[in-house]
What does this fold into?
Amino acid sequence: MSLSVRSIAKESIGWSIALSVLMILVGLFAIAAPLAAGVAVTTVVGWLLLVSGFTHVWFAWHVRGAGAVLWEALVALIYFWGGIYLLMHPLAGLVSLTLILSAYLFLKGLVEVAGGFGLRGLVGSGWLLLDGVFSILVAVMIWAHLPSSAAWVPGTLVGLAILFSGFSRLLLSLAAKKVVAALP
It folds into this structure.
């Protein structure tokens, strides 16, 4: 049985719409339960660090030279330590991730403010400046309320990101559905 491109597209769009709805629901859950979402993010990061540690152990077996082996082994130990720490102490890890997020937003804001001043006079440069100032203010607010901000900041931000990704994917899928429906 041969499937037409149109039937494959319809099936793909159906799955894309279903995934979009699931993403929207997960995003809403993360916003409603930001601490649980934040702990989940911390756990995922912990596991990713462990996988990276195993990758460096594998590299250590495949590099040449004692210095390279030692380097890869030390890097693997750092990854293992970080991953195990996050998995054993997810709330402390959540505070650490929140502090890193605050530092990221602060540095991003400084760069955008500098860029806004550097591009002064060009159309839209004010938006870059405003974005930079806003990022700095958010970073300072997060940092000033640590460790309590760790209970809601990462989970809420991840929830918002998933929610908006779900909505944009849904709207794109619905637009693609209209295009496929209009095909002969």
User: Anything to note?
Assistant: The chain has a mean pLDDT of 90. The chain is about 85% helix and 0% strand.
